[in-house]
Specification:
The chain is α/β, with parallel strands linked by helices. It has 23 helices and twelve strands. A hairpin with a 2-residue loop joins strand 3 (369-379) and strand 4. Bound molecules: adenosine-5'-diphosphate and magnesium ion (MG).
Amino acid sequence: MTTPALTTHPARLLAANGVRTAAALAVLLVAVAILVWVFGRTGERIAVLMCVNVSAVAALAIFCGNTGIVSFGHGAFMTVGAYLSGILTMPAALQRSALPELPIWLAGHELAVWSALPFVALAGLALALLTGSAIARLVGASATISTLGLLIIVHSIAISAREITRGSQTFYGVPRITDLTFVLVAAVMFILIARMFRESRWGLFARAVRDDEDAATALGIAPRRARLVAWTLSGALATVAGALYGHILGAFSPASFYLGLVFAQVVMMIVGGMASVGGAVVGVIAVTLLQNSVRNLEGGATVLGISLPEVFGLTTIALGLAILLVIWLRPQGLVGGFEIGPNADAPFLPGSKRETQPAAIPAPAETTEMVADGLAKSFAGVVAVDDMSFSAPTGTITGLIGPNGAGKSTLINLMTRQYDADKGVARIGTSDLTKLPRHAIIRQKVARSFQNLRLFNGLTAYENVFVAALAAGHSRREAHRITLRELMAFDLGSIAAMRAENLPYGARKRLEIARALAQDPVILLLDEPAAGMNPAETDDLADRLDVIAQERNIGVLLIDHDLKFVNRLSSRIVVMNRGQKIAEGTPEEVRADGRVIEAYIGRGRTARAAQSNQHSSDRPDPTEGVLA
Ligand code: ADP
Ligand code: MG
């Protein structure tokens, strides 16, 4: 079998990513330039606000975009940043009159804005770590609600801590930033940090967890830790953005960072598309322009000869409409899901630009075996697996067959700790897998695929494999080379830069196996890898698996309904029915076993099959379709 060349050159993948970052920056610069040139001083003020919003929304999207969890809590970080930076930079004399009861360690620092920012970032980091240890345990709506809880708590504290914040009264005397360059540089840095995080090891882990937490865990990624890292960076940066926001306001109160601001920033993020950094930029620009045009109408105006009444809160209504329209018409946001060409959505790989050489095939695995010993599992009284024992040695493919509902998938789920076994152990060599946490299974070199495709849909084919290699503990450079090797081994090179959700079915099935192999497993558990493939695709997959198992001395446990496929590849076959092992042996032995035929086609038909076989030997064996 020949492995086709990787038709998408890695350098091309890298370039496409640089282009996207550059495009996001260019959009920002152009918007700022137009505002300043066309609208003068007013335009400059809007541009300053826009840059600070880009920073805040980029910070917000570091968490929301990568974990898929919408946060309303970032206003809490902005509050802390604004007040802390205000206090650290305030002129001492003014501070004595405005905040006479300020704790002594906070008073009289008079720092320059830029030198206060590191302290602000540290405070944000501490708050994020503290709150993240709880919030990172949650997903979906409960996570979102807990972020809202954080906002409410910090808001209430800000109102009651009068000595520090002047309570709900205006906090004044904060040095103002009016310098467009300063905030523009900040916005560019926020965009670059967000972009780099997105492509970093932890950014990829967080996105993998976002797309499929179970599959990510099976690769060895710890989901809570991935969310915590994203939350912490996001929170620290939001705190800095809050400081900048405070400095452009000059005077503010806790209400300045409350639901109004939070809602506007969430709208900006969702309108632009929270999954990409470019989305943050486009969303901020679109919403800022919308806010500014609507605000002019709020006090009543004459449009085309019709005089409009004063409508208080028109800007908020417009924001509400904007988010509804986007969610309805373009749920991914204005920029979300946007691909410049088929290869546009590509990985960004700092430090490995020159590396185009695939990794060598790993040294053959040490000979060992995976053993299941007396495994059992019931679901609410239904026995799914009942006292199953068997072994799968390295260097060969062991088939696992049985009718639907026999317990095959459950067995794999027990061996990889997807479920806790009621009884029994699964071992590889001498280590007991049933005692390990789920994300630690891969350290024992056991990788798996899932019966129902469990790819990371928002990641490219390349990233799906790359993240698996990273999760197995490889450096970026090595992971990149391993990714090239596996993409080539499964003929996925030409579609490496496409998102998994856009791939044809056969390619997705192959990608899931490539992802598992990128972890250099010793034992590979494949749950119906050929299901849904056409005969040509199945044959092709069989060729590839055969080569790989032998070359790498991997032990494969192969579940499939296509018995021709299993018979061709397996040296031994284990047959299950109703949770139990009913036969085991070579394909020939298993095929001749009466219990197996019975399990597949039932008692009555077995007898008829035997009869009709006696009568005419040239007529096809009715068991052929299932057991041939
Ligand atoms: P197979 O993969 O051989 O088709 P499964 O392992 O998926 O079989 O299922 C075995 C039995 O366990 C079936 O009766 C199925 O309904 C049941 N089962 C599997 N997973 C669960 C679950 N998470 N909850 C309840 N029942 C389950
Ligand atoms: Mg199954």
